[in-house]
Amino acid sequence: MANDENLAAVVSTTQGDYRVVVARGAIEDIGTEMINAGLSGRAFLVADVAMFPTAVHRAHEALERNGFVTNVMTLELSESNKNLDTVQKIYEWLAQHRAERLDTVIAMGGGVAGDLVGFAAATWLRGVPFVQVPTSLASMVDASIGGKVAVNLPAGKNLVGAFYQPKLVLQDIDHLKTLPKREMAGGWAEAIKHGLILDANLLDTFERFPDEMQSLKGDLAVKTIRRSVQIKAEVVSADEFERGDTRVLLNYGHTVGHAIEAVSGYGKYLHGEAVAIGMMAAAGIAEKLGMLDREFVDRQRAVLQRYNLPVSVSGVTVDAIIAATKSDKKSRGGTIRWVQLEGPGKAVTRRDVPEEIVRASVAEVISKS
Amino acid sequence: MANDENLAAVVSTTQGDYRVVVARGAIEDIGTEMINAGLSGRAFLVADVAMFPTAVHRAHEALERNGFVTNVMTLELSESNKNLDTVQKIYEWLAQHRAERLDTVIAMGGGVAGDLVGFAAATWLRGVPFVQVPTSLASMVDASIGGKVAVNLPAGKNLVGAFYQPKLVLQDIDHLKTLPKREMAGGWAEAIKHGLILDANLLDTFERFPDEMQSLKGDLAVKTIRRSVQIKAEVVSADEFERGDTRVLLNYGHTVGHAIEAVSGYGKYLHGEAVAIGMMAAAGIAEKLGMLDREFVDRQRAVLQRYNLPVSVSGVTVDAIIAATKSDKKSRGGTIRWVQLEGPGKAVTRRDVPEEIVRASVAEVISKS
Fold it and tell me: Is A16 on the interface with B (CB under 8 A)?
């Protein structure tokens, strides 16, 4: 039976509802959770090579133990091969095994695995059941929930994709044990963001218990990851297709963040790091607009730094960042929709931000070195 | 304003409702119909090169006249390039013009255009508004309605795709004027199939007025195409994802039809021609199972022949056809779900058909020549 102690959230979508399970050792429950989600047929597990052999073997055994005949493919999955060529390799593998409509595709790995394998699942035979097993903190608290799947084109990131909801998201905290410290920080950035935009209590917890959180010891880290997952699940349930005013709030820090990633060349900053810097630029804008006081801006900076996140960028110019924000695909008809805070846990969107205020705020997060 | 005389059906789906408009000269209304469907932004018209220049220009003018800034791409679209390479060309073009989330992609052409351009629309920026302008009879009465979009892989047809509903389907009967007679027949096969499986009156109309229908003169042909469209729309509205027992009925004649296409090499028989032969094999099975009498089988044969459709296949063996039916992707767990008639307009599914009956019925539709 499904263990409801481990249930972080149920996501409610037009494609059905699904559970997000967060626990230490959760991978042992993958078979029972899949049965509970109504899945049958075979399992096609696509794992990042970094999860091989130990984590892959545990998943494989837990699946077979519950009657899922399982095929495994391991791939080196990174931003540089997050493209249609890699998707095609998965198609060929599925074709070779004659994967059918009721078989399940499982993505195991970080954000790239979920996005790319999810796109393959969304499009193989017009969509087969899909399960997310995110193994990085960033994909746990953010990318694995909400059904956004995509790959890159030479012309830009995530230009090709779908809204395709998984049947289950299974997060094993033990998978984080081997995650490099810098990648952990990138994940905390998104989790802290959830507090900043929608939950002052969550922000408070991050500020008060940075050591417990970062050591992942005891219950608090697991509970806090669950709470962050819950926020993402609520936002997605309220605004599945990002057509309303809710899901866009998750883009706090992302307008300048995406620009920083593009201008500095993808890979120099992790996504979460760029978002942290972007959140500082956004807070600077809010301060200049009279929405936030200086004290809160300092508070935001302090919590990000406490989680080993950068709060300034080097080697870029204001002009380059401004130009890149304008080509971000979330702009509509040329005007940028900024996500701004009015206070802890209170995010709003603004379209009327004067460019000189943006420029001044971007300048403040560029370090001279 | 929208012209409701031309409205054939409203399709109701989880992705929203949409109109299917069928009329002579309907392309003149594309701009007003798109406004009526709530579309704004720019239009990206991808047309089969066969529609260039006249039909493309008329569409372009009707769009611009209603305020849609329009970009046009013409492509040679055929079964042999219905693949991801061609989709990638469309992505590159959309990237070059920075097509945004509220811009509309329009497919103008036959079934390949709708399937392939629809897949590009479904996946560009995770899905942008999509309009179908089918210009072959087969795509009008069948493929353009229901949201099935797909491309081929070397391993098989339509293995990669999505369920992605258009915002509007606009069918201009004038586009059929230049369609080769053989392709018209292939379209009639699907329209007659709708009568056979779900509407005895429609079947009756096809039997009584073959000349009026095939000449496309007068009102009757337009009204009959509308009725066939309606049936498809009702089936799709009842069973959007082909999970129930309704949409599968549209596969009447398709189990053996697909096998004939695969075994004789794609291109030898048009899809509708193969389906016509497949419907004769299915009727033979039903007769042997005691579901249909010989008289009705002869009646089905006569109407198909009257519309210039083949009722037997040459150059294939029973063994090859049987083997191909077993690898059809609609089989689940190995058993084939046969669509059978119990009488005119009355289709059911059967899983328990003995192989010797299938073999005997397939043998009957193989000609010795």
Answer: no
